[in-house]
């Protein structure tokens, strides 16, 4: 029996390319379908308020695609828990929501929650999401103290920000140090009973070392690195390449 995939393909970059023209291609749903047919666990999107890449309409199209054609796959919505975003979660009912502490103008998510001041807002958003039967994950810095706080406010999973690890692609010594921080955070989350996800600047080159240190990571959300790989190899083959790096095929 084939291994259950850890790979959730983030298609924000597909939408960003599409939005350069008033045309329906490249198709967000079409490429998402190719990724899932090839074995990806699901699809991740981050619909920002200005819709500079993923649009609200894309969210509903992807939810419909998964419901009708891929009922064993998952849609993960990533976003800041504003009233508008929470309404979108309630209406779309994804399998998972990842709350990130992003300013609307940020280019990408680049830091985890500050649990010393954000707990009230998170508790409210988490309680609402769980009423809608949506699994909640919180974006955390690679800090072994973070998972305990995430569990305390009611999260079921965390996603560890792996950007600092990915940024060390040309510095093996520094990469090893950052890998240690990620692994320690994953171990703390596992000990706290949380599911462990990881995401940001993960590639076929740096994934094997990560999983060797933290084999219980259950999901990796990959967008930029996956899309760069797919420009060379194609969406379906890049799914194979990433799943191979994860030791699944």
From TrEMBL:
It comes from the Bacteria. Pathway: Cofactor biosynthesis; pyridoxine 5'-phosphate biosynthesis; pyridoxine 5'-phosphate from D-erythrose 4-phosphate: step 5/5. The record marks 159 as: Transition state stabilizer. NCBIfam families: pdxJ, PRK05265.1-4. InterPro entries: Aldolase_TIM (IPR013785), PyrdxlP_synth_PdxJ (IPR004569), Pyridoxine-5'_phos_synth (IPR036130). Gene3D superfamilies: Aldolase class I. Belongs to the PNP synthase family. The keyword Cytoplasm applies. This is Pyridoxine 5'-phosphate synthase. Coiled coil: none annotated. GO terms for cellular component: cytosol. GO terms for biological process: pyridoxine biosynthetic process. It catalyses: 3-amino-2-oxopropyl phosphate + 1-deoxy-D-xylulose 5-phosphate = pyridoxine 5'-phosphate + phosphate + 2 H2O + H(+). Homooctamer; tetramer of dimers. Catalyzes the complicated ring closure reaction between the two acyclic compounds 1-deoxy-D-xylulose-5-phosphate (DXP) and 3-amino-2-oxopropyl phosphate (1-amino-acetone-3-phosphate or AAP) to form pyridoxine 5'-phosphate (PNP) and inorganic phosphate. 1-deoxy-D-xylulose 5-phosphate binds at residues 48, 53, 108. Its EC number is 2.6.99.2. The active site is at residues 46, 78, 200. It holds the Pfam family PdxJ. Keywords: Cytoplasm, Pyridoxine biosynthesis, Transferase. It is found in: Cytoplasm. 3-amino-2-oxopropyl phosphate binds at residues 10, 21, 201, 223-224.
